[in-house]
Write a structure and sequence with these properties.
- The chain has 327 residues and is an alpha/beta fold.
- The chain has one domain: TIM Barrel, CATH 3.20.20.80.
- Helix content is 42%, strand content 15%.
- It has helices at 2-11, 16-25, 50-53, 72-87, 109-122, 149-162, 180-196, 209-212, 218-227, 252-270, 304-314, 317-325, and strands at 36-40, 59-65, 91-97, 128-130, 167-168, 172-174, 203-207, 230-236, 241-242, 274-280, 291-292.
- Strands 5-4-3-2-1-10-8-7-6 form a nine-stranded parallel sheet. The chain has a two-stranded antiparallel ribbon with strand order 9-11.
- Strand 1 (36-40), helix 3 and strand 2 form a beta-alpha-beta unit.
- The longest helix is centred in the C-terminal third of the chain and has 19 residues, at 252-270.
Length: 327
């Protein structure tokens, strides 16, 4: 892994002028001109962590229920997170998702538009949005519902109408182990965009867990070709634990997640269409958590994957070792 990390460090800033600016301001997030690496997480305590602060990332991502603005508890959580991110001068991407109160019921387009408009008005400095997190995830009976490609296209159109001048990603997609269903979803979404006579997205979101956690890149390339335009990896990184597919036996998931993250960041540095990459996530779960991809454990202590990200972004393994040894 160390040779790969060294190679990554050399590719993080490729333009001499940009390198001088990055060195002067501590901004080590650009893998090449116009490319940024950040973190996605749901807990505002991330922003108070010295481990996060020393990474000098500039972009973060938050998932909010589409009806958060009209639900007191959800609004309080979103407000605390966004205020903490703004205090750290972060560029915030918000992805809308199903309601926490009625997760199996998809909103009509009118209700969706009214609720997200309220959210946007409450947070005028947030100007980057995704209409629906993991739109092609599928529905799970009794747990949550996901929109059809046609409904996802209408949510995209509605979000564009209420957030003029915002950066709106067309879709947020899971790659899937077999990406054929993802490719069909993309084709149907684009067809519906044509029927609606709205603007075809030029920017798309992708979660490439299936690809990178198998140390592969062909799914990412195949989906990128189908999407065209620019790609933001709105979730990427190494899975510590996920059901029966990826187990964390005696800490094996921790070392695997670090190897995967090194691979994923290498893929980012080589793929010209990828402009932003959000490593998910910061906060690790308990040993019984079904999904865990945390860069830190539940007590905020760094895991091996954190050290991978730190060394790549800071170009300085010594600083990362000093910071983590204090914990």
């Amino acid at each position: 892994m160390l040779p790969l990390l060294a190679a990554l460090a050399l590719t993080v800033v490729s333009h001499p002028a940009q390198a001088r600016v990055a060195a002067a301001h501590g901004d080590a997030t650009a893998a090449r001109a116009g490319q940024l690496i950040g973190v996605g997480d749901q807990q505002s305590k991330m922003f108070a962590s010295p481990l996060w602060q020393q990474l000098y990332t500039k972009i973060v991502r938050y998932i909010a229920p589409y009806d958060a603005a009209v639900r007191r508890g959800e609004l309080a959580r979103a407000s605390a997170w966004i205020r903490a991110a703004e205090a750290q001068h972060q560029l915030i991407l918000v992805a809308f998702y199903h309601s926490q109160h009625t997760p199996t019921k998809l909103p009509g387009v009118g209700q969706y538009q009214r609720d997200v408009r309220r959210f946007i008005r409450l947070f005028p400095h947030v100007r980057e949005y995704q209409p629906w997190d993991e739109a092609n995830r599928g529905s799970v009976r009794g747990r949550f519902s996901s929109p059809s490609p046609q409904t996802a296209a209408r949510y995209y159109q509605a979000l564009r109408r209420v957030c003029t001048g915002c950066t709106i990603l067309g879709l947020d997609l899971l790659d899937q182990n077999n990406p054929d269903s993802t490719l069909r979803y993309i084709a149907q979404f684009k067809r519906e965009i044509g029927h609606l006579k709205t603007v075809m997205p030029a920017l798309w979101g992708l979660h490439n867990y299936s690809d990178v956690n198998r140390l592969q890149g062909w799914r990412t390339h195949k989906i990128s070709r189908a999407l065209r335009g620019s790609i933001w990896l709105t979730e990427t990184g190494g899975i510590v634990q996920f059901g029966h597919a990826f187990r964390n036996r005696r800490g094996s998931g921790l070392s695997r997640a670090a190897r995967v993250l090194a691979f994923a960041l290498g893929l980012v540095s080589r793929e010209r269409r990828i402009k932003h990459a959000y490593v998910y996530d910061w906060s690790g779960g308990s040993s019984g958590a079904r999904f865990d991809a945390g860069l830190t454990d539940r007590r905020g202590r760094p895991r091996p994957a954190y050290r991978v990200l730190c060394r790549v972004l800071l170009h300085n393994s010594h600083r990362c070792q000093v910071a983590t040894s204090r914990r």
